[in-house]
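User: Predict the complex with zinc ion.
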Amino acid sequence: MISAEEHEAAKAQAAKLLRRAGVLVTADEERDMDTADFGLGRLRVEGAQIVKWFDTPRVSARVIALFPGQTEPEHWHTSTSEHAGKEETLRVVFGQLVLYVPGESRVRHGVVPEGKEEYYTARREHVMSPGDQFTVPPGTKHWFQAGDDGAVVLTLSTRATDDQDLFSDPNIVRLTRVGSWSGRA
Ligand code: ZN
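Assistant: Here is the predicted structure with zinc ion placed in the model:
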């Protein structure tokens, strides 16, 4: 859970990053921004600020603003009997992003959050700058981390079902809780 104060401060800081990136989000989208701490209570280390542009039954579009060094924890998008797992293309529009997917071990530009080595198993590194994009296939573990200036990333995908995402860290709860209010991304 994060406090209402931290939630508001994170939204304001993320909105600045989005403006710096030249990404227009409406006042309503900014108000409804998810400040996802994944239930870990340390948003600025493991977390993400997520603006939902749209979800239809078939496609989804989001923009993610990450603070300097902030990490979205390792997760993957599963298939269910009703639909195939989410295929997700990440496109960097501002800052530097280091994306990890399974493969040979070579974490050089990013840093695995301290004490969390066992929950960050994907170690094949992709260093991405504005204009770079990467498509993560369904069921593929991935995590990503912003560089020193933060990062703004578009995530364009097939249908998103966030509450069914799986995370390597068993302590993670996907739905953000702000104070006593229960948010939803
Ligand atoms: Zn993902």
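The chain is about 10% helix and 40% strand.
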